[in-house]
Model the fold of this input.
Amino acid sequence: MSLSESQDTVDNPSKIPAYLLVLIVLSSINIIGSALGAISGMLGARPDKEMIKDAKLEFANMREQLEAGGADDYIYIIDQMEHIAKNMFDHFQAYNSIQFLILLIGFTGVYLMYKGRKLGFHFYIIYSLGLVVLPYLFNPITGIPTILTLVGIVYGGIWVFLYSRNLHWMKD
Done:
């Protein structure tokens, strides 16, 4: 492949692999939907007392279900999740502002990959890790369930892996 053909592939989005295009569309929908929620949180749409009360009731229901099922050993995870939710409610605007910045990094990565730039893949990795690290900015390390971190890493890792299958198409 000549240099001009290589450049044409990168600059011509119509030649984007279908698999990459599907990933970009799915990621964009997810990121834009999350960004709209983060923007509303940044602009002051704080949870009201009713929403906080509903969250507490939901955690109490989960706790009761675990007790009824004899899974008392896992109640501490519900307690940790309730504490994370409380901290998120207490720092709602800051949490959503940082989340919005992380989502912006993710969207930038998706856009750059759409344009055929490998730099976008690196932005996407930062975005994936940023979402995993976000709860640690507002909670003590011991206050976050390991399962939450593992699920975040695995979920982000799967998406990074899927995008990595298209690195051969992207240029520096």
Q: What stands out?
A: The CA atoms of residues 2 and 8 lie 10 Å apart. The chain has one domain: 3-164. Helices lie at 3-11, 18-42, 49-68, 75-90, 92-114, 119-133, 146-164. The first helix runs from residue 3 to 11.
